């Protein structure tokens, strides 16, 4: 992932809010990704993350401004997640997504709910599905039935056991998704620290 950079006012980008993973976790999880075939596309480890909210094509400035204005009045302490296992989205015979699942902790849901309010206040549409935090390890692009080799790859993926490793969450990130000649790239627009400190202004009110 690429570091922060300056943006032109009013520039539209494909944006999402998410949790950054340390490089050590990305390296560890990449060892569980299924083999690549014509239909199975492993995730580049540099792109691994936990999505909080997908925003789509939008100007980042209102999102940044709203978070800066409200985060101190909604104090969230840094927290930890841990891996609970591997799973799929879609039928196990033809998975659409191969994933690693973190625990659905109270703190994670609080952060997601806080950002839901920010997103709604800016008239962005929320995903109507229930929130299922995950780390995408590969995607299945099925235009046919899986081959015998792919069936075995799918089976082996589900038989793997992950360690209960910890993910320390001290901030969340506004990302831009870019398509480049070298492939997809996630650019860090801004990191927002979780300080857990409520400002005096927020305590006293206006």
Task: Tell me about this structure.
The protein is an alpha+beta fold. It has a domain at 13-80 and 104-133 and 164-194: Cyclic phosphodiesterase (Cyclic Phosphodiesterase, Chain: A, Alpha-Beta Complex), CATH 3.90.1140.10. The chain has helices at residues 23-30, 60-70, 106-121, 148-159, 200-204, and strands spanning 13-20, 40-42, 49-58, 79-89, 97-102, 135-140, 166-169, 171-180, 183-193. The strands form two sheets. Strands 2-6-5-4-7 form a five-stranded antiparallel sheet. It has a four-stranded antiparallel sheet with strand order 3-1-8-9. 20% of the residues are buried.
Categorize the overall geometry.
globular
* Main β-sheet, spatial strand arrangement: 2-6-5-4-7
How far apart are the termini?
39 Å
Radius of gyration: 18 Å
* Average pLDDT for all residues: 90
CATH superfamily of the domain at 13-80 and 104-133 and 164-194: Cyclic phosphodiesterase
Low-pLDDT segments: 199-206
| Count of DSSP-assigned helices | 5
Per CATH, the architecture of the domain at 13-80 and 104-133 and 164-194 is: Alpha-Beta Complex
| Major sheet characteristics | 5 strands, antiparallel
Query: Which range best describes the helical content: under 10%, 10-25%, 25-40%, 40-55%, 55-70% or over 70%?
Result: 25-40%
Helices and strands, in order, run as EHEEHEEHEHEEEH
